[in-house]
Design goal:
heterodimer, A: mainly beta, Lipocalin, nine-stranded mixed beta sheet, eight-stranded antiparallel beta barrel, B: 772 residues, mainly beta, five-stranded mixed beta sheet, 50 strands
């Protein structure tokens, strides 16, 4: 939804250079420079024990690989597994409006092999944040570099949790409004999405979202709302630091970022939740293959099957023949004793269809990066017949 | 006092010179006036009937008509500054029009030993105006220059002295170190904004519709205003031959068609159209989709109304259109790129203008008075839409003008005074209609006025001095105060073929572009007006030059320039879309340099024509205390352009060698991380990370390497009856020089890698033009 992204896409897609420019090859260059980078956000979460996780790292300079190697992403190791070079052994302090100095804990300092390299947990309880208060960040590295910043906390209204509902993306419009929040520079709208969350800033206190909305921040501009998915729509009040950092960037020219960090770059900002709403996205069934299916088999197999039922949609029909179609939908999984830890009992899937062949990826946590299982099948009349990637056997689903 | 008295007498004479004899006892004189050497129309010459106070001014087609004359003999005198006058006794018969032709030779008082042969427009300028830094091109010389696809006026302009371009992909041009938005581009005197296609790869001007182009690279006269760097005046062609004529051109890019004809002996008209067809060809022969095209429409007409008023009309409309169904563009709509929406992009210009003019001739010591009244409307619109309203940008500029001037021609003076009233309406908005989110929302309305006076003075017919001085008084409703912009140019002929000139002037600009000057390709410009938050930009020009003609077709010119800028408005990268008034950051600057031009004009006895230019220019800017070189600062620029005519063959070549332009070196990269407040953790950025930003070093502290390019072309003319067929081939970058467009750095690799994107590679093209 960011217009600059749309325009940037045009430039980067490069009708002009794409038609005529050539790549003249690659050259090795000397290492660049490395700068201190901080990502720190004040937020009134109810996590008084763990505190707020701030990230401190070094920017890329070509001295080491940062994302090409290593383990998959881990929330407990966001910098090392997320394409960064952590800065450890730094002193991270936040001074509150009352003058109290809160020193962040660095779990990695006591146990370097455990986790959290570059993570510093500031012991701020959400209830302790002061609306309109100014917080000062000071970081000093082990080599003596100092980084400072200042952020103002927006007011923290009572979070509106609006009732969940069904959202038919073919005809519904989601109208959301809220009361203006003091000390907010802007509001951030976030729509959860399996590819990439849809985000946008607005200065007004009302939005209306149509089912045709596209995620212009994701490659290919997929639909923002996917039938079968449970998606959260949230609104946050953000301060100017947060707003300026995330609305600007340097881009390929190296200039343009609004950086409010002294001695480094990044963000020390604040965001307060205003509103949450969960919608179950649906769409009308318009094609024969769309519909609700249930597992069909022996009683013995019904105990072993992973998926017990699914609702299938053609998320994006093919624009021309010979092209695969995108699928989405919701699934129900067989309850297991350890299901809450290992398998969702209900969730969503994405997939593709070409001819009468299907491939479905059942997602965990509604994230495309976390696939629980893949199912390859064929459509035979009202039946979907196929095999799981990680399980033996052939499984059938019959349309209701 | 004498001039004013003459003016009153002239107007009075015109007012009372009403036909007092019956229609049946009158006739008319009609005819043509041309240059003796070349036969080219001698526009502006005065045709006077001795002793009557009646007369006419020769039009751009070289024609004149005087009606309601007594059926008797009349002595017809023809005069034009710089030419030997002629007179002839013409007999007028009742009820008939007597035709007479004149051919004037250049005045020996001016030329001395120099004799005329083929006379070019630039030679005309050399003899009759200070013209420092002014260059003219006609359509014929433009067509001969090698090019990609069709001939392009602005790409040839980039090869002239004092002019540079950022790279091969840009038809924007930088004059004497100025930004690309500092050039006033006119079509028949009406402004046109952003006349470029395909991100700047081509201009909107169709070669078949252009008669000539004049580029003033500095210190231009007071009748021009609103821009800091230059004036590019493009004039539409006018058909002077009897009968219907036309042309068509097919190139690899698109096709152009033009029709023109005179309107009896009272005027002419011209219409032309161009469209690219690559999208049609791709769709017809493959399953692929190329959802892009552009088109231009151009019309021009001139007509002599009763009472010897002339009306000229010009219309232009053109658009770039990208209309992509993303699911058609993708090979398959797999889950990761499921796409069904559209990407729509439209960007275009429209111009409509009308000019009414009349010449009043006769009077003691005066040739003529020319009255001109002009009205125009120009619009530039940009529409970008992603996902049917998921993200959209819309920008509109509407510029309406009313202007007029009065020019008095005497033996020693060409005094012009005039006015211009402008009304501007600018609108910019972006956001997401599908989400009900509005980002930038800016509306600006303003009006401006300008009064100018300008006098070109030659103290005596044989004087070796030419002085042009004037001033322009301007005001903008959205800013307080008035601005006075003086202009002065002085030329002294040291010899008949050798002159020295100096010029100075002050210039203002109140329309600014929100463009990222550091981006190598400008897709489209977004304009904003000066207002309470954004000042008017100003510049001072100082120029000096020498010019020598070796014969009438060979020219050497050396110009030096210095410019000082104040209040240039550069788009502030950190501007908040929700706030109006923070779009710009003020910048000051300066530039200086020298241009050398050696030019051989085409003539019947010379097969080889062309020019060599060398520019040395230094440009600097200062912003927030930081001094840097602007991205268009190109120190050395050498261009050799040649055309060889061998019978029916025309061979063209162009060699360009230039030093590199500055850029900001990328010195680091980083991942922009997003916080998940629901789970109090940091989100997976993806692998590879999907939001990686770049860190630049010293602003424009590095320079791209030298660029060089050789372009070649060849065409042959075939005649079939009335038709002339000219197939051509052209090769751009004939030896495939690797010229850098931009570097892409990847500091995520060990060692870091720099990828180079190139400018034009080796590019052959071919086409054919047919004219009848």
């Amino acid at each position: 939804m960011r217009s600059e992204a749309a325009v940037r896409w045009l430039v980067l897609a490069g009708v002009v250079p794409g038609l005529l420019a050539c790549e003249l090859g690659e050259t090795f260059v000397p290492p660049g420079q490395s700068f201190l980078l901080v990502h720190a956000v004040l937020h009134p979460v109810a996590f008084p024990v763990t505190g707020l996780p701030f990230l401190l790292e070094r920017t890329w300079d070509g001295v080491r690989y940062v994302w090409q190697t290593g383990p998959p992403y881990s929330f407990g190791e966001p910098i090392v597994t997320g394409g960064g070079s952590p800065e450890i052994r730094a002193t991270v302090e936040v001074t509150t409006p009352s003058g109290e100095v809160l020193r962040a804990a660095e779990p990695n300092a006591t146990n370097p092999e455990s986790c959290c390299a570059g993570m510093y947990f500031v012991p701020i309880a959400g209830s302790a944040l002061v609306a309109g208060g100014t917080y000062e960040l000071r970081i000093q590295t082990s080599s003596g570099e100092v980084l400072t910043a200042r952020a103002t906390m927006p007011a923290m209204p009572t979070v509106m949790v609006q009732p969940a509902g069904v959202f038919d993306r073919s005809r519904d419009t989601l109208r959301i409004s809220w009361a203006p929040v003091a000390h907010a520079a802007a509001y951030e709208l976030v729509i959860s999405n399996p590819y990439r969350d849809v985000t946008a800033f607005t200065e007004s206190s009302t939005v209306h979202l149509t089912g045709a909305l596209r995620n212009t921040g994701a490659e290919g501009f997929p639909n923002a709302f996917l039938p079968g998915f449970e998606q959260r729509v949230s609104v946050y009040a953000v301060d100017s630091n947060y707003y300026d950092y995330y609305r600007s960037s340097n881009g390929g020219t190296g200039r343009g970022l609004v950086n409010r960090i002294t001695g480094g770059l990044g963000v020390f900002g604040a965001k307060a939740p205003v509103l949450h709403r969960v919608v179950q996205v649906v769409a009308p069934f318009t094609r024969p293959v769309e519909g609700t299916y249930r597992y069909f088999g022996t009683v013995e197999d019904s105990i072993r099957t992973l998926i017990t039922g699914l609702t299938l949609y053609i998320e994006s029909p093919a624009a021309k023949t010979g092209v695969t179609e995108a699928l989405s939908g919701a699934y129900r999984a067989r309850p297991r004793a350890l299901a809450p830890l290992f398998f969702d009992t209900a969730g969503a899937f994405l997939g593709r269809k070409w001819g009468d062949s299907l491939e479905l990826a059942f997602l965990s946590q509604h994230r495309i990066t976390d696939t629980m299982e893949v199912f390859k099948a064929r459509v035979i009349g009202d039946t979907i017949v196929g095999r799981y990637r990680q399980r033996l056997g052939t499984w059938r689903f019959l349309k209701n | 006092m004498r001039m004013r008295r003459w003016l009153i007498d002239s107007i009075t004479a015109f007012a009372i010179a009403i036909p007092t004899v019956s229609a049946g006892q009158t006739g008319a004189i009609s005819g043509s006036v041309a240059q003796a050497a070349s036969g080219a129309p001698l526009a502006g010459a005065a045709v006077v009937l001795a002793g009557t106070g009646r007369g006419a001014l020769v039009d751009t087609l070289g024609r004149f008509t005087i009606t309601d004359l007594r059926a008797q003999s009349h002595r017809v005198e023809v005069r034009r500054q710089g030419y030997e006058p002629q007179s002839r006794l013409v007999v007028v018969r009742a009820g008939e029009t007597t035709f007479v032709s004149f051919a004037l030779a250049l005045s020996t008082q001016v030329l001395g030993a120099v004799r005329t042969e083929a006379t070019a427009a630039d030679r005309e300028l050399f003899l009759t105006r200070p013209s420092l830094g002014t260059t003219s091109l006609n359509s014929r010389s433009v067509t001969a220059v090698p090019r990609l696809g069709e001939a392009d006026i602005i790409r040839v302009i980039q090869l002239l002295p004092g002019v540079g371009a950022r790279n091969d992909f840009s038809t924007g041009f930088n004059v004497h170190g100025g930004e690309a938005d500092q050039n006033l581009i006119l079509i028949d005197g009406y402004p046109i904004y952003n006349p470029f296609h395909l991100g700047g790869l081509f201009s909107t001007f169709m070669d078949a519709t252009v008669r000539d182009v004049t580029l003033m690279t500095g210190a231009f006269p007071a009748r021009y205003g609103g821009r800091l760097s230059s004036v590019l005046d493009v004039r539409s062609a006018a058909e002077g031959r009897p009968g219907l004529h036309g042309s068509a051109e097919l190139s690899l890019l698109g096709s152009t068609a033009m029709l023109s004809a005179p309107i009896s002996d009272r005027g002419s008209w011209l219409v032309a159209a161009r469209r690219t067809y690559a999208d049609q060809v791709v769709g017809a022969f493959s399953d692929e989709v190329l959802p892009y095209h552009f088109y231009d429409l151009h019309g021009h007409a001139a007509y002599r109304l009763p009472g010897d008023w002339w009306i000229a009309l010009t219309g232009y409309g053109g658009n770039d259109v990208l209309d992509a169904d993303l699911s058609e563009v993708d090979d398959d709509s797999v889950a990761a790129t499921a796409a069904e929406g559209n990407l729509f992009f439209r960007w275009g210009n429209s111009v409509v203008g009308a000019t009414l003019s009349k010449t009043i001739t006769g009077g003691p010591g005066a040739d003529s008075v020319v009255l001109v009244q002009r009205a125009s409307g120009s619009a530039f619109t940009t529409d970008v839409d992603v996902g049917e309203g998921s993200a959209s940008v819309r920008h509109t500029v509407v510029d309406r003008r009313l202007g007029g001037d009065l020019t008095v021609h005497t033996a020693a003076h060409e005094f012009a005074t005039g006015y211009e009233l402008s009304a501007y309406r600018l609108a910019t908005e972006d956001g997401s209609p599908q989400a009900g989110i509005r980002g930038t929302y800016r509306r600006q309305r303003a009006s401006a006025f300008a009064l100018f006076a300008d006098d070109l003075w030659r103290p005596s017919p044989g004087s070796r001095w030419l002085v042009e001085g004037g001033a322009r008084l301007e005001g903008l409703s959205s800013r307080d105060g008035l601005s006075l912009a003086p202009r002065l140019s002085v030329k002294r002929f040291l010899r008949d073929d050798f002159s020295v000139s100096i010029a100075a002037g002050r210039f203002t600009q109140w329309t600014h572009t929100l463009s990222r000057e550091d981006q190598p390709i400008r897709f489209f410009d977004v304009y904003a007006l000066a207002d309470s938050a954004t000042p008017v930009a100003t510049a001072w020009h100082f120029m000096a030059g020498v010019e020598r003609w070796m014969g009438s077709t060979r020219q050497l010119r050396i110009d030096a320039f210095m410019k000082r800028y104040d209040g240039i408005q550069e788009f502030w990268l950190g501007e908040n879309p929700f706030v109006n008034g923070d779009e710009f950051t003020p910048t000051t600057g300066a530039s200086y340099g020298i241009d050398v031009l050696f030019r051989q004009y085409e003539s019947p006895d010379r097969r080889l024509s062309g020019w060599i230019t060398y520019n040395y220019a230094v440009a600097s800017r200062k912003q927030d205390g930081e001094r840097f070189a602007p991205a268009h600062d190109r120190r050395h620029n050498l261009n050799l352009v040649s055309t060889l005519r061998l019978g029916r063959y025309v061979i063209g070549a162009r060699l360009g060698i230039a030093s590199g332009t500055p850029y900001t070196e990328i010195i680091s990269q980083y991942v922009r991380r997003r916080y998940d407040p629901i789970n109090n953790r940091w989100e997976n950025p993806g692998r590879p990370p999907n939001d990686v930003d770049y860190i630049g070093g010293t602003r424009n502290g590095a320079r791209y390497p030298l660029t060089q390019r050789l372009d070649l072309s060849a065409s042959r003319e075939y005649r079939h009856g009335r038709a002339t067929v000219r197939p051509y081939v052209s090769i751009v970058n004939a030896y495939n020089a690797h010229n850098v467009l931009v570097y892409q750095l990847d500091y995520g690799l060990v060692p870091p890698v720099r990828r180079t994107l190139s400018q034009f590679p080796f590019l052959p093209s071919a086409g054919v033009s047919v004219a009848f």
